[in-house]
Amino acid sequence: MIKQLPLIIEEAREGLRAKKFSCRELVDAYFERIEKIDGTLNSFITIEKESARVCANECDEQIALTGYPEDKPLFGIPFAVKDAICTEGIRSTASAKILDNYIPPFDATVIAKLKNAGGIILGKNNCDAFGHGASNENSQYGPVPNPWNIKMVAGGSSGGSAAAVSANFCAFAIGEDTGGSIRQPAAFCGLAGLRPSYGRNSRYGVMPMASSLDTVGPLARTVQDVALLMEVMAGKDERDGTTVQDAVPAYSAEIAKLPKKLRVGLPQEYFTGDLEEETKNIIEKAIEDIKNLGVQVSEVSLPHTKFSVPVYYIVVPAEDSDGVRAEVDNLFDTYAESRAIGFPTEVKRRIMIGTFSLSSGYYDAYYAHAQKVRTLIRQDFDKVFETVDLLLTPTTPTPAFPLGSKTEDPIAMYLADVFAVSASLAGLPALSVSAGFNAAGLPVGLQIIGPRLHELEVLQLGYAYEQINKWFLKQPSL
Ligand code: GLN
């Protein structure tokens, strides 16, 4: 019997290794908790009880025969997957009714790698449909309340994944981040979540949202777990031509070696009007903690930051809409009807904005122009990384906001991404790590941004900070 579910992956591995519990007991304990509490959180769309139990039994047999296989870093570790990521034989809806009965015949590359490392899929997580959103309220399977306060949003678009890890329904979850969809829900739910550099992890089998920005990465309770998961997930994939050849560092072995004389920049544009006062105070306290680690901190500037949200919301809908246009006459009614029912409002809005900004006459004024400003945003980062190694910012301007408070105002919802989208447009790695809680008990996230492919330094600083307050030990009371 498991009295207390493990909080981090190594604790689960140790429990299995030392036979404190069997893998089957672990899987069943998570299912029991899901059944008891997920009626409130709605974090799962599909639960895979049968196949997970079969996998767990197989793991137990292998442990009994040959002991715990140390070469499999996730052996017997239960996890969950955002529903916009394909999983072989498991329904993958992307939270849109148009895919309600879609069962992919293949695994996304990252999922295949996690399974090869011994991970066991418990089910698929609710999200904003096709990743479109910042609150998980654009799901055709209902919203996901925040485990710390069920009147608040869990964040989006990977809100179900964040809520599931935070509520201890699984050891970790896999999300997708185009413009903040891993970092923002991680921040709102008190977790660590990494958006890797564009091209670091394969996107094969991840339902595309905006192909020049999409990334796939882990949500876990600690930065240490994120490092371990990245080690399993990252690397070149022949099936995704945008993945890079560069060797994947031994993130978990290197994570505790914070580089000496690390220089960190605070981009002043992230500490202005948009940032709520209490969140600012919490982030400033985190910066003090980081200074006390011997890190050199200075103010820097990313002057084109104010254009990031407008540029993002032109480029992303344009890439979104490209590929869903089909105006074949006799099929028109079928397409019109199925999309009217099968796509939520936000998906339709983005397809319309994107189609408009790509149409002749408007292309130069909107899409081409936005791409030019995107280059300026990237150049801001190139320049700043000549003088500092990493950047520190709040992940979000406020903690989790009330359910329903922004659903009627798409612009207000888009502005929830204000601190997340710049790193996305520039293809950079960015981590959100828990920086503690506000007076109302809601988590606040600290964002660490690094130069492209410098996940290791980002994780090293995140880990060093995480050790100071160990916020991850605090759990929501559910
Ligand atoms: N909130 C952002 C959007 O709606 C982020 C989406 C994402 O990263 N998938 O586009």
Question: Secondary-structure blueprint of this entry?
Answer:
Elements lengths: L8 H9 L5 H19 L2 E4 L1 H18 L11 E5 L26 H8 L3 E6 L19 E2 L2 E5 L5 H8 L5 E6 L5 H7 L2 E4 L19 E6 L2 H11 L17 H4 L8 E5 L9 H15 L4 E5 L7 H14 L10 H11 L2 H14 L5 H21 L5 E5 L15 H6 L5 H5 L4 E8 L5 E7 L5 H15 L9
Parallel strand pairs: 2-3, 2-6, 9-10, 9-11
Antiparallel strand pairs: 1-3, 4-5, 6-8, 7-8, 7-12, 11-13, 12-13
Bound molecules: glutamine.
Structure report:
The protein has 478 residues and is an alpha/beta fold. Strand 4 (145-146) and strand 5 (149-153) form a beta hairpin. It has one domain: Amidase signature (AS) enzymes (Alpha-Beta Complex). The chain has 16 helices and 13 strands. The strands form two sheets. Strands 1-3-2-6-8-7-12-13-11-9-10 form an eleven-stranded mixed β-sheet, with helices on both faces. The model has no long low-confidence stretch (mean pLDDT 95). The chain has helices spanning 9-17, 23-41, 49-66, 109-116, 159-166, 183-189, 223-233, 251-254, 277-291, 308-321, 332-342, 345-358, 364-384, 410-415, 421-425, 455-469, and strands at residues 44-47, 78-82, 120-125, 145-146, 149-153, 172-177, 192-195, 215-220, 263-267, 296-300, 390-394, 430-437, 443-449. Glutamine binds next to strand 6. Heterotrimer of A, B and C subunits. This is Glutamyl-tRNA(Gln) amidotransferase subunit A. The active site is at 82 (charge relay system), 157 (charge relay system), 181 (acyl-ester intermediate).
